[in-house]
Design brief:
Chain lengths: 549, 61
């Protein structure tokens, strides 16, 4: 792929705008809360698009297109079974507690609801995890740009990190959120033409269906038996593991996305954030997954296009960029590349802004220096932003040097995350659940996740204790790890809670269902009522599932 | 800051650039398509940018 002057110019224009937005928002930052939490100042259309964009990193874009080519339209389950119902649950049922607790972060909610050790466990694992995941995505981007454009790994890593650092340092969370929306528009406008062009060239959706094996274009028809579909999963494992445990855990408890909803102006808008976000989210598969499906059809049409190869197999991660090279001329190619950079930056800024808030409030202010004047925490917040970016760069190089360590780390993070949703579900909806219940529930959930991995094998992974069962794919294995982790955490939390002393109800006000006033909805128009908007989003997702069944 | 303004300017500018590419260099084509994609995408981006600017103007007035 070769770039022309006009493509570089578009990239520079984009850099100028994101930095300009950061510069303009500089004057809104006076306190640590302005910098780290935006002080409930962001309009709802912005928070809801940022809610979607913070998750739409470059790895998501490249990975979803790759999965589209590998597994077909089944990949959309991540959106239509995974994300949308979880986002609706988050907006309707969980935001009221996050908002009325006045917690500044997810770990802080755990501190208010349970105790210090539960917060510490969550805050520290989350902080480490965000740094590593932004490092890993930086590594992926650097590698891709080197492969496709021949850019130096160091140059692309340092340049993109420097720009993210500059605009988050200038305007804090507000700047990250505002830029995420610009980035979201650019991703959608930059990649929609690719979907249209690739599908049209392959003869439309009907052309795709006639050229490909049926399983590639059906999301549900082959889900009855794991041996019938390329993901190697059945309906229960997918709906319970991906749909319930993993997606609800991610969208409802991951501070990276929850932080966007917490920046909304009031509780009504905080609840609407994930609900409105669900609408653009459910159409993303058409832009990010469908081109991958189309690529397989195009490669069988005797055109100049072939699926990218690596050794004996296919290099699916390059499907997106090879399609761009086939369909985008100079000019639009610059827009597509800028869109890829934009997705990388929105993902990284999401990680960095979540990291600095959790570190400053949940680690520094809780364990290192408890009462200092606010400007001290503002300085710490800014310094943490720099440290977070530097650590991410270090992780990107670590990833480049030792690929296996990172696989291991991602595995461990998976164990840490898997049980979280059980803790929040019980914490928010069962007054009787106790701090010790939550803490030991979480630990048992993590242990159950590790044990499941040690006792099962999939594609040669796992089984380090003693292999009892074999799953047809690592994806199926991951879903079952999540299911067992959730079950263990849920049962142990309940069991320990029943034998330990609960907090008095007075201390649970604003934190738990039943003792938290939920705002009345009579006076607001129907299109702003969370329950109605949520029901409409679910109905729309159901229609998408039906169309692509 | 009303985010619709800078976004509106950005996409209008980008759209004008692509449209000019489409008009002045209509021979710039990608291997697998015969369409003048720069022109069409450029026009769509101008429309999107102007809608954002229009919305920003209406709520400011």
């Amino acid at each position: 792929m070769t770039l022309h002057a006009v493509d570089y110019f578009i990239l520079l224009l984009y850099f100028a705008f994101v930095l300009g937005i950061g510069w303009y928002l500089k004057k809104t930052v006076a306190t640590s809360a302005d910098f780290l939490t935006s002080q409930r100042s962001v309009p709802v259309w912005i928070t809801s698009l940022a809610f979607v964009a913070a998750n739409l990193g470059a790895q998501e874009l490249i990975g979803m297109c790759a999965s589209g080519a590998k597994y077909g339209i089944m990949t959309a389950h991540f959106y239509w079974v995974g994300a949308v119902p979880a986002m609706v649950f988050m907006g309707v049922f969980m935001m009221p507690f996050y908002f009325s607790s006045r917690a500044r972060s997810v770990p802080e909610y755990l501190k208010l609801r349970f105790d210090e050790k539960t917060r510490g466990l969550n805050a520290i694992s989350f902080a480490v995890m965000t740094v590593f995941s932004s490092g890993i995505s930086m590594y992926a981007l650097g590698l891709l740009l080197k492969l496709v454009l021949g850019w130096s790994f160091t140059a692309s890593v340092l340049l993109s990190a420097a720009i993210v650092l500059a605009y988050t340092l200038l305007g804090g969370l507000t700047s990250a959120i505002y830029n995420e929306v610009l980035q979201f528009f650019l991703i959608v406008l930059g990649f929609t033409p690719l979907a249209i062009l690739s599908v049209t060239r392959a003869g439309g959706w009907d052309g795709l269906r006639s050229r490909l094996p049926q399983v590639m274009t059906s999301a549900w028809r082959y889900m009855g038996d794991p041996s019938q579909n390329p993901m190697g999963i059945d309906t229960f494992g997918m709906v319970a593991g991906l749909g319930f445990v993993l997606s609800f855990g991610y969208w409802c408890t991951n501070f990276l996305v929850v932080q966007r909803a917490m920046a909304a102006r009031n509780m009504a808008e905080g609840r609407l954030t994930p609900l409105i976000g669900a609408f653009p989210k459910m159409f993303m598969p058409l832009i990010v997954i469908v081109p991958g499906v189309a690529a397989v059809a195009l490669s069988q049409m005797g055109l100049s296009y072939a699926l990218p190869r690596k050794g004996a197999g296919f290099d699916y991660d390059q499907v997106l960029t090879t399609l761009m090279a086939q369909f985008y001329p100079a000019g639009l190619l610059g827009v597509g590349l800028t869109g890829l950079m934009a997705s990388f930056m929105s993902g990284m800024a999401g990680n960095v802004t979540a990291f600095n808030t959790v570190f400053t409030y949940d680690i520094y202010q809780s364990y290192i220096r408890k009462s200092a004047p606010d400007h001290h925490y503002l300085t710490v917040g800014r310094a943490t932003t720099v440290v977070g970016v530097v650590l991410s760069i270090a992780c990107a190089y670590l990833a480049a040097l030792y690929n296996n360590i990172l696989d291991l780390l991602q595995l461990v993070f998976g164990f840490v995350n898997a049980p979280l949703f059980a803790t929040f579900l019980l914490g928010m909806f069962w007054k009787r659940s106790t701090a010790n219940g939550a803490f030991f529930g979480l630990l048992s959930g993590m242990a159950a996740a590790a044990a499941t991995h040690g006792l099962t094998v999939a594609e040669g992974k796992g089984g380090w204790l003693t292999p009892l069962t074999t799953y047809p794919s690592t994806m199926a294995q991951n879903f079952w790890i999540a299911i067992w982790a959730f079950a263990a955490c849920f049962l142990i939390t309940v069991a320990v809670s029943l034998v330990t002393k609960a907090k008095p109800v007075a201390e649970l006000k604003g934190l738990v269902w039943g003792v938290t006033p939920i705002p009345r909805e009579e006076n607001i128009p129907w299109w702003k009522k969370p329950v109605l908007v949520g029901a409409f989003a679910l109905a729309a997702a159901l229609v998408m599932n039906w169309i692509f069944r | 800051m009303d985010l619709r303004k800078p976004s509106g300017y950005f996409f209008t500018l980008l759209g004008v650039l692509l449209t000019l590419m489409g008009i002045l260099a209509p021979g710039t084509r990608a291997p697998l398509t015969d369409a003048n994609v720069n022109l069409y995408t450029g026009l769509a981006m101008i429309a999107f940018g102007l809608i954002l600017l229009l919305l920003a103007r209406r709520s400011a007035a």
